[in-house]
Design brief:
binds copper (II) ion; 60s Ribosomal Protein L30, Chain: A; alpha+beta; single chain; 5-stranded mixed β-sheet; Immunoglobulin-like; 3 domains
């Protein structure tokens, strides 16, 4: 409806202008063409000067009016360490282009006024002025040199890569239509390798190289809804794209870099203001003391609802706008707490699947966890007289045989270390089976299995005087033998501390 009214008003204005033109034609025929033409020239020339004055005043007034909403002014000082130098470069450029803007506009409109058609106006004609050419060549050349040199200085200051001895947090950002996959390095602080040959859209869309040990603790937040960063920490963002050009743009941190398929790019910056500190700055400005949502007058105010944003700054498709994400800058303590809650992508969704290059193998971190577990239960059993039996959970045998499975060696190696650290300890290695098969052969099997464990420990340097082995067969099941899980738990080797 509003649109229709507006359309009709514009149509009417056009009709009025055309009719006025006709009236002018008629009057000029009556009064004499020349005089009317001169009057029109004067009027147009004056209007142009008035337009220039109003236009320049409006430019200045609107810039001042919206100052606090523009990056780099009012509360919007840069939230990163390098941002100030980019802002000052911008301001210097604005200063020179501002002068050119004002001077050329004054010249444009003033000339059209001064040289309007008049009676007895004489034309001043000259072919060439060396002086003028010197001026309009030299001044822009000097200004351009100054701007380019200053720009280069800032570029060299902002763009160098981190050196290995510097401390920094590296995160990965991969853009695609229409979201970001954000990768954190996990406790080791190193992002693992990627390789496009390993891309599998179903299980490994980023092409992470799980054979690289550094990848195993990496965390991929796919389609991440936010990025969390610690304040005052150097951040290196490794940027890439899966499909078309995107652009990783953090306006408040003056960070902007293309995400290009097949060409890794990066940006380094140090956030210096937490989200909360930025909100406190906004709080002092009246523009931010209004409800964030006009429909909810009692809801949070604009300063409270503020968040840093990540935006895609490359028009990458129809969902381009939806690549906006929140960036939260927090204290290092809050960051550590948040990062501790992240789960390794490899451990949660790759380990043990067909995509796992280490399927069936024991990995370093798993060995470490098992060693820690065994040490804890061994020490508990050693110190506490009551519970002096521990179950050697990761000792396995070949089916129906007393031969140790290779997977048992790590556990037994840990155990031999623990036993050697207590030279006067005496322990019994007890073999147990489930109730499959007849009692007598189970008893023999359990005796032989316990014997194998003893032999292995002796081969690792544990004194045979510290060890005895005993077979219990199926006589002391730990669980019911009615289920497969129960039977698996009943086939076990136990360590009992006889004396310290
Ligand atoms: Cu995009």
């Amino acid at each position: 409806m509003n649109f229709l009214v507006l359309f009709l008003i514009i149509l009417l204005l056009i009709v009025i202008v055309i009719q006025l033109g006709r009236v002018r034609d008629l009057t000029s025929r009556i009064r004499g063409e020349e005089r009317v033409a001169r009057q029109n020239n004067n009027r147009t020339a004056m209007s142009l000067v008035v337009f220039m004055v109003v236009f320049l005043i409006l430019c200045v007034v609107s810039a001042l009016y919206y100052k606090d909403s523009m990056l780099g002014y009012g509360p919007h000082g840069a939230a990163s360490a390098h941002g100030g130098s980019i802002d000052s470069l911008f301001n210097v450029t604005l200063f020179f282009t501002g002068i050119v803007f004002v001077v050329t506009h004054i010249a444009l409109f003033w000339f059209s006024y001064k040289y309007r058609e008049r009676d007895n106006a004489e034309v001043n004609y000259f072919v060439h002025s060396t002086q003028l050419e010197m001026i309009w060549t030299a001044i822009p050349a000097i200004v351009m040199c100054f701007l380019v040199v200053k720009g280069l200085v800032v570029w060299n200051d902002v763009m160098p890569d981190v050196s290995p001895e510097e401390s920094y947090l590296e995160i990965g950002a991969t853009g695609y239509q229409f979201a970001w996959d954000i990768r954190y390095p996990g406790p080791d602080g190193i992002l693992g390798e990627k390789n496009f040959r390993k891309i599998d859209m179903a299980v490994n869309p980023l092409g992470l190289d799980f054979e690289d040990e550094n990848t195993l603790d990496d965390i991929v937040l796919s389609g991440a809804d936010k990025i969390v960063l610690p304040v005052n920490t150097q951040i290196r963002v490794a940027i890439s794209s899966k499909d078309v050009l995107h652009n990783f743009y953090l306006p408040h941190f003056r960070v902007k870099m293309d995400a290009i398929p097949g060409l890794p790019t990066y940006f380094i910056f140090t956030p210096i203001t937490t989200t909360e500190e930025y909100r406190q700055k906004l709080k002092d400005y009246p523009e931010y003391q209004v409800p964030a949502d006009p429909d909810e007058p009692d809801g949070p105010q604009r300063w409270e609802a503020f968040n840093y944003e990540l935006a895609c700054a490359e028009l990458c498709g129809k969902g381009h706008y939806s690549m906006r994400r929140i960036v939260e800058v927090v204290t290092p303590e809050e960051y550590a707490e948040w990062a501790a809650g992240l789960k390794s992508t490899y451990k949660t969704s790759i380990r043990g699947t067909d995509a796992d290059p280490f399927k069936g193998d024991l990995l370093g971190y798993e060995k470490a966890a098992r060693a820690k577990e065994l040490t804890a239960s061994f020490n508990a059993a050693f110190e506490d007289d009551g519970a002096n039996i521990i179950n050697l959970e990761h000792v396995f045998f070949k089916t129906g045989s007393a031969e140790l499975d290779e997977k048992s060696f790590a556990e037994l190696d840990n155990l031999s270390g623990l036993l050697k650290s207590k030279p006067s300890i005496k322990v019994e290695l007890g073999g147990h089976t489930d109730n499959t098969g007849d009692d007598q052969s189970n008893l023999v099997l359990s005796e032989n299995r316990a014997g194998s464990v003893l032999e292995y420990l002796v081969s690792k340097g544990v004194s045979s005087t510290n060890l005895v082995s005993k077979g219990y067969g199926e006589t002391s099941p730990r669980e019911t033998n009615d289920t497969e899980e129960g039977r698996a738990l009943n086939r076990r080797t136990e360590l009992k501390i006889l004396s310290k």
